[in-house]
Amino acid sequence: MTNPLFYAKILLFGEYGIIEDSQGLTLPYSFYKGALKFSSLDSEFEKKSNTHLTKYADYLLDLELPKGFELDVQKFQYEISEGLFFDSNIPQGYGVGSSGALVAAIFERYSITKYNPENISKDQLKNLKKVFGLMESYFHGRSSGIDPLICYMNLPILIENKESVDKVAIPESEEGKGAIFLIDSGMTGETGPMVQIFFEKMKTEGFRKTLKEEFIRYNNACIEAFLKKDMNPFFRNLKKLSNWAYEHFRPMIPESIFNVWKKGLDSNAYYLKLCGSGGGGYILGFTKDYEKAEKMLDGFHKEVIYRF
């Protein structure tokens, strides 16, 4: 059996906003990956994974998927009984798509109609996103389908709005002083409770208004400037976005990160934003001078994902 690898993903922009029709920009992240494999299930990890797959197969058995996107669940169940497990180093609860990679791997192996990610049309992308949303809802209660889509396509994806997504080219990473990096908050976050907090906030008119008029405007402007590699407007809007999140997404910012988030805003040395739903896991950092930011963030585990 060949084991296609499915990489983690990073949502650079669009967290929560994409629920309300903002744009989003996501990248595959090859540092973390997962693949379906067979074993005699000797280790605790393999046993646990196999048990999870058994429960997930029961869910998929009752799931009605659109025509052309059906899964051979019987084959999946048979292979689970033969020792199938998901071998992954993608951390769970870190906002980098652990369930997305699993869903992508299962679809790739068990979809009755086979697709080639390189030749997928925009319409098929839209349908795949829906299918992946249904498949991933098992893990989060509600899913846009974006995470598995990025893991499956293994390409940067521009989320144009709720309905429409497209493949996109991002500027080449180069060895400059600037960087986009991940900071480990040291704790895991759960998507469900964080999304619940967001929907509670959406019940107040003031929050809805500022989300639409400010957050979405800054978010979309960041994406536009980043894709053009126009770094001055990029950092200008990024500061506004980071400041907005500091004020309005406070419950989603892990306690360990709270003070350094403010320190970045006050010093302009770096700006932080949520990576996924927040509550824990990774936080995204952006800086024009990584050496300086690294010193200021001493004590935190960091990983550079893009240089400019």
TrEMBL record:
Q: What is its EC number?
A: 2.7.1.36
Its pathway, per UniProt, is: Isoprenoid biosynthesis; isopentenyl diphosphate biosynthesis via mevalonate pathway; isopentenyl diphosphate from (R)-mevalonate: step 1/3
Q: What class of enzyme is it?
A: transferase
Q: Which GO terms describe its molecular function?
A: ATP binding; mevalonate kinase activity
List the GO biological process terms.
isopentenyl diphosphate biosynthetic process, mevalonate pathway
According to the entry, every stretch annotated as the GHMP kinase C-terminal domain falls at: 223-301
- The coiled-coil regions, if any, are none
InterPro entries noted in UniProt: GHMP_kinase_C_dom, GHMP_kinase_C_sf, GHMP_kinase_N_dom, HddA/FKP, Mev_gal_kin, Ribosomal_Su5_D2-typ_SF, Ribsml_uS5_D2-typ_fold_subgr
The alphabetical list of record keywords is: ATP-binding, Cytoplasm, Kinase, Lipid biosynthesis, Lipid metabolism, Magnesium, Nucleotide-binding, Transferase
- What are the residue boundaries of the GHMP kinase N-terminal domain, all occurrences included? 84-153
Q: Does the keyword Lyase apply?
A: no
A cellular component term (GO) from this record? Answer: cytosol
Query: What is the protein's given name?
Result: Mevalonate kinase
